[in-house]
Each structure stands twice: as C-alpha cells, then as structure tokens.
Design goal:
Elements (H helix, E strand, L loop, with lengths): L1 H17 L5 H6 L3 E2 L3 E4 L2 E8 L2 E8 L2 E6 L2 E7 L17 E8 L8 E8 L5 E9 L2 E10 L7 E4 L2 E5 L6 E7 L2 E6 L11
Parallel strand pairs: 1-11
Antiparallel strand pairs: 2-7, 3-4, 4-5, 5-6, 7-8, 8-9, 9-10, 11-12, 12-13, 13-14
C-alpha cells in the first residue's frame, strides 16, 4: 500500500511540476507567460478561440490588441486597458513584447483572455485578465510588477506567479470567487507596491 501511495504522490508531483516547465514550443516562441492554454507572442499575429459558441479572433498589430466577433471589432489594449477596470490603481503603460493567450482562471470551463506586456528592458511585466460577459469584455484582474528584476509570469490553474530574479521573492495572484487574491513571499503588503 505504501508503494502505491508513494507512486501516486510522485506522479502528482510530476504533473504539478510539468505545468511549470517550459515546453519546446514555449522556448521556440520566446513567450514570457508560461502555462497558458493557447497564445501568440510578439508584436504582430492572431489567435482564434471560442466562448459559448461565440468565435473570437484576437489581433496584435503595432502595440494594439483588438478582438473581433464576426464583423464587430473592439480595441482592448493600446497604451493601457480600454475596458472597465476591476481595481482602483492605475496600471503603468509598458512598451515592448506582447503575449496574448487564453486560460480558464475562473474554473468554469470558459477561457479568459490574457494580455501581457513586458517592457523593452525585460524587468517589468503587466497582465490583464479579461472575461467575456454580457456581450462585452470586462477586466477581472490586473497584475504586474515593474519594480525589481522580473521577466516572466507562470500560470497554473487559477494562479499567476511572478518571481523577482534579484531577491527571489514570489508574488502570486489566485482567482477566488470574484477576483484575484494577492500574496507575497517577502511580506509585500499590496500588489500596488509592485507598480
């Protein structure tokens, strides 16, 4: 019995760890958001996905992110978020590489849209998590760190994690019922202190 329990513990640990490892496609694409279900990287490209029989096409062109449903096209990001914000602090505007992808943070089998930007110097990241609800896109989370040496976001289930490469501190945002809950390993009291 102990051997079976140890086997399943090892198997579970391997599955959990594998979600945090870079795959070959992650390395080839040079993504800085690890763990998204599907994504595009760079300053130009497109990504298709569907939510409740609605087909969407996201386009990234010249530091602008837009999403189209049929002939309706909405700009979601251009020098900052263009949809209602869920938080009261302002996200900084970063110029640099984009990762746009989908992932189910709310655990309802419907994907949320993630727009992440890393500044040109590679030491600041912001990400917006958008949900399609009532025929419009709303922000359910805005996360980021521009202070310190941060260069990637890890996604696993309902959690996003950013590591400060200089101090080793981990910052996590976990989706709980109506929003993301912030925790820090270095006792940072608020996510706003990272911006």
């Amino acid at each position: 019995m102990k051997k079976i329990a140890l086997f399943f513990s090892a198997l579970l640990a391997a599955v959990v760890c594998s979600a945090q490892l870079r795959t070959g496609s992650d390395i080839d694409s040079k993504t800085f958001v690890i763990g998204l279900d599907n994504y595009i990287v760079g300053e130009a490209g497109g990504l298709g996905f569907s939510i409740k029989n609605n087909a969407f096409k996201v386009e990234v062109l010249e530091e602008t992110v837009s999403v189209a449903k049929g002939s309706q096209k909405v700009v979601l990001y251009k020098d900052g978020l263009k949809v209602p914000a869920a938080y009261d602090y302002s996200m900084p505007v970063l110029k640099g590489d984009f990762v746009v992808g989908v992932h189910d943070f709310t655990d309802d089998t419907l994907p949320e849209l993630v727009i992440a930007v890393r500044d040109d110097a590679g030491n600041g990241i912001i990400a917006f998590i958008l949900q399609y609800k009532d025929n419009k896109w709303i922000s359910i989370g805005e996360i980021g760190a521009v202070k310190g040496n941060v260069n990637e976001i890890r996604v696993f289930r309902q959690t996003l994690t950013i590591k400060n490469q200089k101090t080793g501190a981990l910052y996590t945002w976990t989706y709980k019922k109506n929003g993301f809950v912030f925790k820090a390993s270095d006792k940072t009291a608020s996510a706003a202190n990272l911006l």
